[in-house]
Amino acid sequence: MLLTRRRLPLNAMRAFEVAARHCNLRLAAQELGVSHSAVSRQIKQLEALLQLDLFDRSHNRLSLTSSGRQLYTGVSEGLDRIAESVLYLDPDSVEGSLVVASTPSIGAGWLVSVITSFCQRFPDIDIRLTNIEPRQQELPRDVDIAICYGKPEAGGRKIETLFREQYFPACHRALLNETGPIRRPQDLLQLPLLHDQHGLWRRWFSLFDIDAEIPQRIFFEDSFQVLTAIRSGFGVGLVEQIDVQGELERGELVRLFDETVHSAEQHYLLTDDDKRATMRAKLFVQYLKENLQACTKLHQQSAR
């Protein structure tokens, strides 16, 4: 059934979103501050209006049908956008500064584009990006959000696992124009291989049972320096999808093989707990996670 804006049953949509999130009418009723029967009635009215079953009620358990899952995604995203818009009606609720810390390679890579687009969306938030060392344990108290390589000490703050980098070999298209196509992993041994502090080349070649001497004429302290050399057509390096997604799509860089090796440590997100975190910090964390999720989906699609 086609619903116009004038006919949208917003109360029923809200009840459905909470019930779908919990898959439990009792918990949904507690969150909404209404009775169990009121939530049930709202959902039944919504199903009757849509002429669809949104929940599977068999076996005395509540679960979403395929239609329910699809509707839940749309309603949840819509309510989040409404809540965000209402918050931003009062600039004082988000206006102010935000200190974000990351390792130099992350700070010089994809995080710059995240911060740039975030500031365009929330121009009243001022962001200061500062560096921390890989595997740094103690972080300054003035840092609102930290993206850490290696798990830091919590220091009374909240720590979440963010992602683990997956590396694959890539080079500039100009390099292939000079050398010709790369058909076998062994062919890479004849090209300038760019190394960094992660030392992942031997692990990558071991995926193919290649135990040859790996030339190491060019070593960089930082993985972003490797990426700069790749972009200059200087050699082949191991890169992370999130850093080169745009260049791969434009055909400037070429992914040479699908096989990946992961970094030794995971990346972690350190923030104040929900009660102490500012609204601007919460908005940035949400925006950051959305961008990482989108990049992860592109990564999975390109690897197929």
UniProtKB/TrEMBL annotation:
SUPFAM superfamilies: Periplasmic binding protein-like II, Winged helix' DNA-binding domain. InterPro entries: LysR-type_TF_proteobact-type, LysR_HTH_N, LysR_subst-bd, WH-like_DNA-bd_sf, WH_DNA-bd_sf. Keywords: DNA-binding, Transcription, Transcription regulation. The keyword Kinase does not apply. It comes from the Bacteria. Gene3D superfamilies: Periplasmic binding protein-like II, Winged helix-like DNA-binding domain superfamily/Winged helix DNA-binding domain. Residues 8-65 form the HTH lysR-type domain. Belongs to the LysR transcriptional regulatory family. This is Transcriptional regulator GcvA. It comes from Biformimicrobium ophioploci.
